[in-house]
Amino acid sequence: MNVEGKVVCVTGASGYIASWIVKLLLQRGYTVRATVRDPNDQKKTEHLLALDGAEERLSLFKANLLEEGSFEHAIDGCEAVFHTASPVLLTAEDPQAELIEPAVKGTLNVLKTCVKMSSVKRVILTSSMAAVIAHASPTGPNGVVDETMFSDPSFCEQRKQWYALSKTLAEDEACKFAKANEMDLIVMNPGLVIGPILQPTLNFSVAVVVELTKGKDPFMSKSYRFVDVRDVSLAHIKALETPSANGRYIIDGPVIATLKDIEKVLREFVPDLCIGDDKNNEDIDLDLVTYKVSVEKVKTLGIEFTPTETSLRDTVFSLQEKCLL
């Protein structure tokens, strides 16, 4: 596919998945306009400016999710927009201000700008598995989760799952808006993302691996389903490059890794590691991880999944390299 001269925008570009999307877009020859909250914050931008092709084809733009119209400058003239910007917090003192408003208002702010710009042909929204699996009727160990399932906002509220609520409401509003405005919107729903980090600081999902290397079981779930950041970002780009792509795409680890599997890989790096799985885990809903996930749809984009073992190894290598372990 000849992408020469194609201009695309990535919002929240300093984030974990977004940084990889920028890296792969530059590798493929796209011209990228990346939005960040503060282009002068070197900690947030240095790793982007150091990417191959950045000097020639990457420009940074200041934009704020809650500031109406602040994305116009970046999006004007772009053929596609990857909207990844959204806060990732599992606990919040003020969920409305810290999570829900930036996620929902920010998404609508970006989509409204996309509608204004006649150049924009397709928008790819980064949602989450949190917008798929948080509901009262668990699938059971043999149930299959697919793109037809949606999290239930009232269930999220009852359980105080504010992050899931923010992603669910943002995706729902985005889809309604896209339908009303005949917009070509594609939604990506990644699970717990690990793999090498480009940014200099720890993000939420990779911090889970740091906890595991310390012998902790951060979600107290005895098993984890990981998906590689390189697969997730490539899926976003394939969703742009595949004309027939449509709707939602679940991109989650097809395989469940037990604590023993994880420990086996991590022992290479931490020889005396022992992850305690004898904790009292009775109140944890194991259903959260043991369901099956259908990744057939995302495979139609040409995505092949990186083995969990490789992802874990590469995560730890990357953390060591950045002195974060």
Structure description:
It is a single chain. This protein has 325 residues and is of the alpha/beta class. It has one domain: Rossmann fold (3-Layer(aba) Sandwich), CATH 3.40.50.720. The chain has 14 helices and 13 strands. It has a seven-stranded parallel beta sheet, with helices on both faces. Helix 1 packs across helix 10. The longest helix has 22 residues.
Name a few traits of the molecule.
325 residues; alpha/beta; seven-stranded parallel beta sheet; two-stranded parallel sheet; 14 helices
CATH classification, class level: Alpha Beta
Return Rg in Å.
Answer: 19 Å
Order of helices and strands: EHEHHEHEHEHEHHEEHEEHEEHHEHH
Number of domains: 1
Gist of the model:
By secondary structure, the protein is of the alpha/beta class. It has helices at about 15-30, 40-50, 55, 70-75, 95-115, 130-135, 155-160, 160-180, 205-215, 230-240, 260-265, 285-290, 295-300, 310-320; strands at about 5-10, 30-35, 60, 80-85, 120-125, 145, 185-190, 190-195, 225, 225-230, 245-250, 255-260, 290-295. About 40% of the residues lie in helices and about 15% in strands.
List the helices and strands and how they pair.
Blueprint: E1 7-11, H1 16-28, E2 31-36, H2 42-49, H3 54-57, E3 58-62, H4 72-75, E4 80-83, H5 95-116, E5 122-126, H6 130-133, E6 144-145, H7 153-158, H8 162-180, E7 185-190, E8 192-194, H9 204-213, E9 223-224, E10 226-228, H10 229-241, E11 247-251, E12 257-258, H11 259-266, H12 287-290, E13 292-293, H13 296-299, H14 308-321
Parallel strand pairs: 1-2, 1-4, 2-3, 4-5, 5-7, 6-13, 7-11, 8-10
Antiparallel strand pairs: 9-12
Helix pairs in contact: 1-10, 5-8, 11-14
Pfam families: Epimerase
GO molecular function, one term: oxidoreductase activity
Keywords: NADP, Oxidoreductase
